[in-house]
Amino acid sequence: MAIIENDLEELCIDWLKDNSYEYVHSDEISYDGANQERAKFSEVVLKPRLIKSITDLNPNIASEYISKAVEKLANYRSQSIVDGNKEVYDWVRNGVPVDVILSDGTPSVIRLNVIDFKNPHQNNFLAVRQFTVHGNQVRRPDIVCFINGLPLIVIELKNPADINADIEAAYNQIQDYKSNIPQLFYYNLCNIISDGTVARYGSLTADFSRHSRWRLLNGKKVNNSALELEVLVNGLLAPDTITQFLNSFVAFGGSDGGAPFKVIAQWHQYHGVNQAVIRAKEALTKKDGKGGVVWFTQGSGKSLLALFYVMALRDEDAFKNPTIVVVTDRNDLDSQLFNTFADSSWSLRATPKQAETRDELKEMLSSVEAGGVFFTTIQKFAPENKQSSVDVLCERGNVIVITDEAHRTQYGFKACLLYTSRCV
Predict the structure, then answer these.
(1) How far is it, in rounded angstroms, from Cα 294 to Cα 94?
(2) From the CB of residue 38, how many other CB atoms can be counted at a distance below 10 Å?
(3) How far is residue 86's CA from residue 250's CA, in Å, rounded to a whole number?
(4) pTM exceeds cut of 0.70
């Protein structure tokens, strides 16, 4: 018997329920439903769940400030979906800013937590089928996944039996939703599209070609025979994984003045960063200074993996807000990596700097006790004329050096390409 779209929805719901998601149909929680959780079909945040989560996560905060945070988040509006998504992401990740009056009468701003990132299973996970939303038009995404009442994932499925209904049609349907029910996407982490055979996920701004397959299940790469949609749902949407993904594997570009865009990690970037962080922690214990090696293939998203790695390191208390030095072996590669970091400086929470000379790098390192992201090339570590060594650039223990193809020392600091007389 052929599988139809309804069957795919039921499969997804079963997989989500196996991953501790509660399940309800939209009618049950909508206006006039048996367990109403929203007063209007235009509302996309489930306030009762959000209220409970913010209250539980901020136990010593007065109820009036809880209410302010809930209303600010639930009633959010913006002229731009992308700019709105960026602001809401900051609130979800770092807390909703709320104006308060301190006991001495001084006005201040506090941030109220929305998600429990340290204890993922303490959050409320919910899958809603046929989630009806009124906007410019009425639309019903197949499945919407909520965390603590916020609609973070939209799943659009197409009938496997219909040759005209493939994942590109599902992608186009998501674009239609963005136009007609934009309020759903201020909170969006990612979108999933599938026709039963092929399954892909992508960010709010990703074009069709940037939607990727997820290949990790229980921390291990699956083989090509595994059902893509099942791996994606059971892998990425598992509470531990999706919570960490939300916290550490989202970046926004456009800081250099270009059009804003959102980037989320591909499966190998997620896996590679997690393994690299584990190895870096081991280096702290062993005190051998060796953070390990990550191998790349061309076009695999090396620059973004490096960005996510630095973001992850800066979030780890063990590294004491490390200073990052990124070393490459070519000026063009230095610029390429630097531009990626500079364009995502908002997510990095730092403004990267390039050191033109060794003395300048030494000055940069000595000017801070923690933090900072500095770029340089390996040539600047070459001993000067008639010298066999270089001065120590920094004595601090919270400096992490990331080298990208910085193997010039294997061939000599003045190595040249065979087809040119000019050193690179």
Answers:
(1) 29
(2) 20
(3) 10
(4) yes
